[in-house]
Amino acid sequence: SSQSELALSSVVEMGFTDSQAEQICALSRFRGSNPKHALSTLTALFVLGLNPASVLKVIEKCPELYTVKEAQLQQRITNLRKLGLVEGSLQRVVVHYPQILTVPAKRIRTAVTFLREKCLFTMHQVTGILRDSPAAVLENTNHLEYKFQYVYFRMGVKQAEMVKSKLFRFSLDEVRNRHSFLERRGLYQTPDKNGQTLVINPRLDRVLHSDQDAFLKLASASAEEYDVFKRLVEREWRQEEHQWARWEKWIQEEGKEKIT
Hints:
The protein has 15 helices and no strands. The chain has helices spanning 8-12, 18-27, 35-47, 52-61, 70-82, 89-96, 105-117, 123-132, 141-154, 159-164, 172-184, 204-209, 212-218, 223-241, 244-255. The longest helix is centred in the C-terminal third of the chain and has 19 residues, at 223-241. It is elongated and about 70 Å long. InterPro entries: MTERF, MTERF_sf.
């Protein structure tokens, strides 16, 4: 094997089976990767406590990890620990969403600061978001903020319930489609200033996590009705997107003192 490739023998020595080692080496041909970085990445993942099958899964999902220098990788893992990801949770996050190790620690800290200062999540809640929805920290902060404000102001849901229902796993469209459909059918209401509604709103968890059949049952509707509705509102929302600036202005004037 050439200097630019990972040696099969050194990978087998790490505890991979022959077929796993072949896959690991094939993935190391990822552009920009270097055998030295590839070996140190594999070592770092073992030190983290992952077994060979999990390491392979991580590299298959995210071969870019082969291009990350050892010191950066260690710094990023240490940073996630500092943000409250304990043993077990940390490993699950890395296996589920290895891309989290491809971004500078600084970018993740910026997202954490944003969630704490703009959305007023506690540090404990932010750790919950990192654990359950790690991709959220790489999302555009304007999108995150809009989703947060939509659920907070329009749906009247507080931070603790957002974290519990793993809100940030869902796109804004998924949240909006389901909420608006229930709202237009008279099954969901924005709470008034005192948090009161005339109907009993279903919990966010039920709105988001029900499968399609359970959701349609909740909405007392057919799949056809929901499909037609989604097509119509998509058109409305595309027209509304450019009004985001006006909505933001309203939030600044009306909403500042309301996020608690």
